[in-house]
Structure formats: C-alpha cells, structure tokens
Description:
49% of the residues lie in helices and 14% in strands. The protein is of the alpha/beta class. The protein folds into 2 domains: 2-95, Orthogonal Bundle (Helicase, Ruva Protein, domain 3); 101-276, 3-Layer(aba) Sandwich (Rossmann fold), CATH 3.40.50. The N and C termini lie far apart (45 Å). The model is unreliable at 92-96 (pLDDT under 50). Guanosine-5'-monophosphate binds at residues 108, 112, 130, 134, 165-167, 169, 174-176, 194-196, 198-199.
Amino acid sequence: MAALAIAKESRQARAAIKNAIAxxxxxxxxxxxxPRESIRRMxxxxxxxxxxxxxxxxxxxxxxxxxxxxxxxxxxxxxHQLMSLRGELAVGKIDSQRGNLIVISxxxxxxxxxxxxxxxxxxxxxxxxxxxxxxxxxGEKDGVDYxxxxxxxxxxxxxxxxxLEWADFAGNRYGTPRAPVEEWRAVGKHVILEIEIDGxxxxxxxxxxxxxxxxxxxxxxxxxxxxxxxxxxxxxxxxARLALAEQEMAAAPEFDEIxxxxxxxxxxxxxxxxxxxxxxxx
Length: 282
Ligand code: ADP
Ligand code: 5GP
C-alpha cells in the first residue's frame, strides 16, 4: 500500500511539472533544480517535449544535435549539456534564473567540509572544486576534493586571470577556478565556495550580490576538539591552525550571516533556505 501511494505521488509530481512547463508557469530548469527523486529520474526528452513549441519530434532532434542520449535522466545531465539546452531554449525567463553565489567560510575545523559535503547531495547546489598547491591528504582525490597543482601551474592560472579569487593560507595557495562557477550559475545552480576569509573578502568586492556565510563553533573548546579529533595534522601544524583560527573568528562581523554549527542538520535547515533565496538585485 505504501509503495503504491509513493508511486502515485511520483506520477502526480511528474505530471504537475510537465503541465507547469506546458503552461509556461515553469521552465525545464525548474525541473532540473528540483530535489525530488521522482523528478530527478524523469527522462530529459519527456520534459523537453512538454516545452511549448518544442514537442516530441523537435525534442528528439535537439537531443541528437546536443549529443544527449535519448535515455538520459534529468539527474544525470552534465554542466555542458545543461548549457547547450539553455542555449536552445534561450528565453528571457531562463536568464532571470541564474544561480546564487554562496560563500561558506569560518575557522578551520568548524565543520565547513562536513556542511559542503551535505550540500553536494542536493541538486539545487553545486560545490566548487578549488585548486591548491598543498599535498593531498589520505583519501583525497584529484578533481574531486581539489585540483592538486604545482606552484608553477597555480602561478600560471593567476597570471591568466583564471581565478575568481585566490589566497595564501597556512603555507599553501588555494583558488577558485572562475569558468565552472560561471557555467553552473548560468544553468541555475547555486554555487557554493568553501573558502578562507581572505578569499571571501575578494568575492565580496568582485561579486556584490554574493551571499557570505560565516560558520562559527558553539564555543572555542569545541573548535579545539574538532580540529584535534580530525587527526589529519601534525601537532605543529595544528598549533599554527589554532592561532589562525583565532584571527579568523575575528572576521565574523564582516559576513552577511553568522551560523553556529552546533548540530549539522539544524545548521543546514537554516542555511539552505537562505542560500537559495533570490539575491538582491537579481
Ligand atoms: P573544516 O572543513 O571547517 O575544517 P570539517 O568539516 O573537516 O571542518 O570538520 C572538523 C571535524 O569536526 C570533523 O571531524 C567533523 O566530523 C566534526 N564536525 C563537523 N561538524 C560537527 C558538529 N556539528 N558536531 C560535532 N562534530 C562536527
Ligand atoms: P584545507 O587545507 O583544510 O583543505 O583548507 C584550508 C583552508 O583553505 C580552508 O579554510 C578552506 O576553506 C580554504 N580554501 C579551500 N579552497 C579555497 C579556495 O579556493 N580559495 C580560498 N581563498 N580558500 C580556500
């Protein structure tokens, strides 16, 4: 009975979104950013066919021209496929749906990676992958956790203006590659940058509409416990990070919102609506 009820609900959700697209009340980008599994599993062609003026035949032609498999589901579309669909369907309404730029900052050990890892599972968001000159930690993968670059390659990217922001931090360099941020925002995803304070300040200057969140620990002792608990740094490195954390805490008032990371779930419940709300001036 429960399974039947769920199946019926999924069918109704899929029918509702197709109707909304057909009536012009929604675009296929609303469906692409819908976190419900029933929508994520819809075939792209089904949605595309519902767009006014497209229909089944043109939908199939567009898919072929754009190299998208006819069986591709909404949840499996990559950024370049999304960009090309956006090009095909370019209408005013889509332009107004550019995703937000969200900065998540705060002292090391406060839980920033824990928070961004949770956001990675939410299709409304895309978490930027930074470049760094530091060595990978155990379990970190190139291209997933970071792009691990040599200092020469990093410098080259600075010279070419390929970073949205970059900073020196604890003896290494970290930077946000600009192009993917623009691409994901253009297809309506809210882009998350998990960066240190200096980078956050640069974003504040260059992107006036970005929303800056400072993640704060419940108290100092808890921050020390979290940094120690992770066990990934040597004692010297940890001492240096704690000294840095003290300076970082002082920057909290410069941010749009300060969120205390007591329990991750509660923090996410506050963060997600704030991060997805329309930005000023957009
Ligand atoms: P950051 O990315 O800010 O350096 P991490 O996400 O690596 O921090 O978190 C540091 C440690 O704190 C990890 O062991 C993580 O599991 C733990 N942690 C994160 N958030 C919480 C929380 N709300 N309560 C307890 N422990 C937490
Ligand atoms: P870690 O070495 O612990 O992964 O990161 C150290 C610090 O660098 C963290 O505060 C993290 O938020 C920050 N960081 C990671 N990527 C970037 C980036 O692209 N730009 C800036 N400015 N900081 C970053």
